[in-house]
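Please predict the structure of the following assembly.
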Amino acid sequence: MAPAIDYDSPTPPYQQIAAEIIRDIESGTLAVDRPIPSESALVQRWGVARDTARRAVRQLRELGYVYTVPQRGTYVTDQTAEDDQGDA
Amino acid sequence: MAPAIDYDSPTPPYQQIAAEIIRDIESGTLAVDRPIPSESALVQRWGVARDTARRAVRQLRELGYVYTVPQRGTYVTDQTAEDDQGDA
DNA sequence: TAAGATTTGTGCGTATGTATT
DNA sequence: TAATACATACGCACAAATCTT
């Protein structure tokens, strides 16, 4: 369900959060074109600073899992429509 | 225009960046009371860490070339209005 | 039209840990 | 030890766009 950040892990907090969201995307918990939790939600959900939440989202974006609409939110990418992520 | 950091130089990166900004100020490229590039911009522009960008800005501030308004930005100082920089 | 909440964008201040010189 | 540099993290504040009421 809701694991917490493992500060003893060599994996930085933002990557742990990103990994969890990736699991939710791949399991279908977060559907295509549906918004992922907002930065504020991640801050409360994980008990981290906004900077950390933003890093997690940024990584998801860089990996092609999500896309962000300014002032709107960040949504799950339709992987099947991607053509330059390289590992589909 | 846009030189890169010379890591072989004895001059540390933050000083190279500061020197470049000073040139922009003295040439008028960066006008009085106009903002200098943000920390994030410097990070991307020079490919350095935020810490390095911050050091460059700090040095400019110590030299009187700029003044920082908390949570807003850093702006070019009006040299002609200075009275404690000593070399006007 | 206006107010308020929400969300991302941006910027700054600060701190810790690691590595290199 | 000290200075420098990089990566990460936490806190705070304001701007801009969106959405709701």
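Residues 38-40, 54, 57, 68-74 of chain A lie near DNA strand C (CB under 10 Å from a C1'). The radius of gyration of chain A is 13 Å.
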